[in-house]
Structure formats: C-alpha cells, structure tokens
Amino acid sequence: MQRYRHIEQYARITGRKFKGMKLFQLMFKRETLVPMLAVSFASVVSVVLVIARIICARDTHYAFLIWNLFLAWIPMVFALLAREHQQHGASPGWRFFAFGAAWLLFFPNAPYIFTDIIHLTRFYSHYWIDLNLILLNAVTGMVIGFMSLYLMQSAVRHMAGELMSWLFIGAVALLSGFGICFGRFLRLNSWDIVMPGKMYHTLDFWAKHATTGYNGSIGFAVLFAAFVFITYLMLYALTHLSPPQLAPASSTKSPEAQPA
Fold it and tell me: Which residues of 123-151 are buried (b: 16+ CB within 10 A; e: fewer)?
C-alpha cells in the first residue's frame, strides 16, 4: 500500500512538471521567442527596480506593482492555452472558448497598471523616480497584454476573417475600459466573478450612480477604451513595417558617372 502511495505522489509531481514544461514550451516557441524574451527581460528589470526602491526607501508602499505585473501575465497564459486548443481546419473546441473567456476576464489587468499613477502625490522628493517606476511597470504590463491580444486576434482572424478580428479588438477595448473602471473605482477584481452576490450589488450601485457623474466613470471607461484601442493599433502598424522598404537607397553610381 505504501508503495502505491509513493507511485501516486511521484505521478502527481511529474505531472505538474510536465504541465509547467509544456507551458514554458508554448511561451517560447520560435514564432514568439523574441517578443517573449523582451517582455520577460522587462518584467525582471521592473521587479528588480521595485525591490531596489523598497530596500533603499525602506518602504513597501510600491510592492503592489509586483503583484499587478504578475496579474498582467495571466492573460498571456490563457491566450497561449487558447491558441494551443484551437483546432486548425475545424470548429474550435470548448477548451478554446473556456480559455478565451478566462483571457477576456483577466485581460484588463494588463493595462490597469497605468491607473496606479493615482498613488503618486505631487509634493515629495521621490516623485519623478516613482513616476518612472510606475510607467515602466505599466508599459511592460500593457505590452504583455497586447501580445496576448494579438494572439487572440489571430485566432479570431483564422475563424472569422480580418474584419471580425478588428471588431473583436474594438469590443475587447471597450469591455476593458469598463473593466478597468470597475477595478479602480469599485475595487472589483477578476476573481470576483465567483462571487455573484458581490458582483450584482456592486454593479447595481454603479448603475444607479453612473448617470449622476459617479467619478466620471462612464467617460473614463470610454476614454480608456480609446486609449487601449489606439495604442494597440499604433503598435500593430509599427510591427507591420516592411523591412525592405526601410533599407537605404542604393548608392551605386550610374554608368555615366563612373570614370572612363
């Protein structure tokens, strides 16, 4: 009996290692290797700088940036899993939609870090240091989120075409604007979805006061949605520059200009 227990424990441990290795392989495939290495490096630098700030200032106030950056990685994981379960040449399975729904639920955590600027106060000696620290984490989190968004857009494009993929981007941006609004002003988290009572009462309170100018929440949500959409659009356009068109003009002299 004891022998079977050891075998079962070993199977559990190796199973967890296998799943972790599979996720690692999904993250660092050849087609995503360079951007994944870049955001991994940026994430490590961001965390190290936050820890250095905590040690030097002897203040853990900005430790939340590490947690928020961790949350920004969660939609990337779900996007990779969704793409892995996308069936090429056939209708996607239920796992694809399950991972896609989880991705959408956690995606607002990526651009949310920009709202952490609210923790800054104007009149103190470390203002500019802390501003740069927050912006570094925010840009890193947003780029991670945009990478996951690009993966999901590619999946939608494969299933429904180019137009639907951009309608998908617009819908995600709008939903993210409201998700970030609810997170910042109403203090809702992505995992609160498992507490429908809290969700209902919080959103009911917001619906009753949103039209009366509750923190300008509707305007904030719409503007942040525009910020997400336009920023993604610009980065998308930037990554689709054609390298041959960026090459310098040929400096070869014409035959007439060459010496006899």
Answer: eeeeeeebeebbebbbebbbbbbbbbbbb
In terms of DSSP H, where are the helices of the chain? 2-27, 33-57, 64-84, 94-106, 109-112, 127-160, 162-185, 196-210, 217-239, 243-246
Give me Rg for the CA atoms of the chain. Answer: 23
* Model pLDDT for residues 115-160, shown as the tens digit of each residue: 999 888 765 778 888 999 999 999 999 999 999 999 999 999 988 8
C-alpha span between 125 and 122 (Å, rounded)? 9
Q: pTM value? A: 0.79
Q: Closest Cα to residue 83, out of 95, 65, 71?
A: 95
- Which residues, in sequence order, are CB contacts of 39 under 8 Å at separation 6+? 140, 143, 144, 147
Contacts of 206 (CB under 8 A, 6+ apart): 182, 185, 186, 214, 217
Domain ranges for the chain, please list them: 24-240
Q: Which residues of 172-188 are buried (b: 16+ CB within 10 A; e: fewer)?
A: bbbbbbbbbbbbbbbeb
Question: How far apart are the C-alpha atoms of 190 and 102, rounded to whole Å?
Answer: 9
- Single out the residue of 152, 169, 67 nearest to residue 113, CA to CA: 67
Exposed, middle or buried, 18 (CB in 10 Å: 0-12/13-18/19+)? exposed
Q: Are 156 and 79 in contact (CB under 8 A)?
A: no
Q: Are 49 and 132 in contact (CB under 8 A)?
A: no
Encoded tokens for 117: 């600027």
